[in-house]
C-alpha cells in the first residue's frame, strides 16, 4: 500500500510529515489559525451581533446612534474582500504582533475578516427569538442579563450553533487564502508546494484535508444543534 501511494503521490511523500514543508506543521498551522481566529473573531462577532439586536428599534435597548455604529462597522469590514483586508490592515498587524507575515500575524486579518459575517449571522439568529417570550420575561421582572443569557442566547442556541458552524467553515476557507500568501497551513501547501511547482498530487491532498476538516465541523455542528435544540430539552 505504501509503495502504491508513493507511486501515485510522489510529491506528497517527498514533502514528508515534519520539517518546514511537512504535512503535520501545515495541518497544525491551519488548526491554529482556525481556532484562535474563531475565538477572537467569534467574541467580537457575538458582541456586535447582540448589540445590533438589543439596540434595534424593536430591541430591549433601542438606541438609533448605537445601532448605527454597530451596523456601519460590521458593514464596513464585511464589504472589504479578504485578500484586500490582508494588505489594508498590515500596519495594524505589525503594531499588534510585530510582523506582517506568518501564522500568528494572520490571526489579525482572519479575526477581522470573520467577525462581521458572524455578527450578521448572530443578529439573524437572535432576531428570530419569539418576542412574546421576551415580553413575558420582562413582565416577570427579568434583569438585562437574564434576558440576554436566559432568553435570547438560550432560545436561539440551536440556531447559534448552526451559524457558528457555517462561520467556522467559512473561516477554514479564509485560512487557506491566508496560507496562500505566506501564513502557512494547508493553503500554503496547496499553492506554494503544489500549484507553483506543478505538483498536482500535493494540491489534491491539501484540498482533500481541507474538505475533511469542513466535513468534520459540519457533522459536529449538526449534532450539537440537534442535541441542544431547546425544543428537545
From TrEMBL:
GO cellular component terms, semicolon-separated: plasma membrane
Stretches of the chain forming a coiled coil according to its record: none
Membrane topology field: Multi-pass membrane protein
Gene3D superfamilies per record: MetI-like
ABC transmembrane type-1 domain: residues covered: 27-221
Main location: membrane
Pfam families associated with the record: BPD_transp_1 (PF00528)
Protein name: ABC-type metal ion transport system, permease component
Organism of origin: Liquorilactobacillus aquaticus DSM 21051
